[in-house]
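Most newcomers find our protein records easier to grasp once they have seen one. The structure tokens are whole numbers drawn from a learned vocabulary of backbone shapes. The record below serves as our worked example for the rest of this section.
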Amino acid sequence: MNAYGWKKRILKIDLSEHRIDSFVPDDSLLKNYLGGRGLGAKILYDAGRADALVPANLLVFAAGPLTGTTTPASGRVSLSTRSPLTGTIFDSNCGGSFGPELKKAGYDAIIIAGKSPEPVFIKIEDDLVEIKPAAWLWGKNVKETTGILKGNGSVVCIGRAGEKLVPLASIIADGIHAFGRGGVGAVMGSKKLKAIVVKGAGRVDIYDKGEFSKQKKAINRLLIACPTISKGLSVFGTPFLVKITSWMKILPVANFRRAEPDFDIRKFFAKTIAEEYSTRKKACYSCPIACKREDKEGKELPEYETIGLMGANIQNPDYKAVVEANRRCNDYGLDTISVAGVLGCYSEMGDKGISHTELLKLTRMIGEKEGIGERLGRGAKAFAESEGHPEKAIQVKGLELPSYDPRGVKGLGFSYATSNRGGCHTRAYLVAPEILRKPKAIDPYTLAGKAGHTKIFQDRFAAVDSLVVCKFAFFGAGEEEYANILSAVTGENYTSEDLMLVGERIWNVERLYNVREGFGKKDDTLPDRFFKEKVNGRVIDKEEFLKTLDEYYRMRGWDENGVPAKGKLKQLEIERQELWK
């Protein structure tokens, strides 16, 4: 393989020994796993077992072969590790400029192992890689840390929540882009790593520039032609979903117990927000969609998930409180979905809504690991169990659910249950066909056919997360278009079928990791609330759900307990390690 698209160089930094190495990855590793999430999953699996907050657990920041090119919506980068919240293999990706700068500096990935005895940050500028003291930065939150370091390049860092090992802590890139979910910030904090700063002066070489230009234009035309993008995301950002989900009665209310809030939800609609805050677009690197929004002062505004869960789900009628809590979470380095999820549980315990003042107070207490914030910061599952009410935790595998009630989007609910990282909408992203009717509409009110849909979409987005490309682009373009542009960039011939096979390989490696850690069929389920309590006249039939799960296992080539069979692993060319050591 030629060094087109990929840089064919991976950094490995051992913080325990303050040792910096780099190596050339095997060609088959890049061709079969692409980069991003796939590369991270394979590295973690091959590294063997390690608890989340021990030095042996790895942090793998990985770009994809399209990162750093001008491929539409390719300005993302992935992070892989073991989650302290769920215990599962975990990946998260975000936008900003960190991924492109990493590639321009000459690296496909950074593997971080060990634990520094004192706080440090890593500075990368092309071939110069340094581990530098960071005691003077320790104790500072994200915005201050980013402000100090950003002159040296793109910054990823943790706030005080990550330093204090809060299981809901995130890593924040360039001040506003989150490697969210799963407590990945706590892993970084456990290594005494405050930040990574990357600046690159190089470029990503493209194999066939003429073909690349042709395919780029084809993708851009499809993005413009897609109303969900051109009339939804590009105009209003992700908050355009609030109106749709409230109309469908799938916006969670009162910790997923009701279908309609007892206040006027229209104040949370995207058009209202745009008018009140004079919103401005903010785009990631090489993204024509520009879904992020900021106010006229350039301060970030919350995304759909945060709005839904910090609004109706905790019975908070004040959008301004959501804005302020979102900014506080970003500054502490906290995952807004999980913070809102555990607060939904807390709200139900007290049988009351959470006021503006209380929301901000509790958010700060979680970030500081102070008072009740220490227990809330462990996540909804642990908090509800500590209160003697585990049934009130709306989570899968310990990860709090996003802002869609699965009783009204049953395929999405099934994808929550079978997700390798826990309750997550982005693993299969059935939001697209069940809510937004892209690339084609499927019935959201039934489980019929959802085993197949879930598998296909899970494989699809495992590949997308490895390119690394934004999922929103796939409302307009598809595997064929991105396989074509990948071929033009790398000089390797990829088809849409090849991408789907890569995705399936990644999904199985992640499953193997989880099986090795004790996860299985018992964990592929939803909270009992969705099987027993009707909302808007809907409930999920448990017997039908279990039949769908068995069908899903058969389609995946797994046994009745959800363990990948030897024949499937051989077909996917996955070398199976000993699962129980």
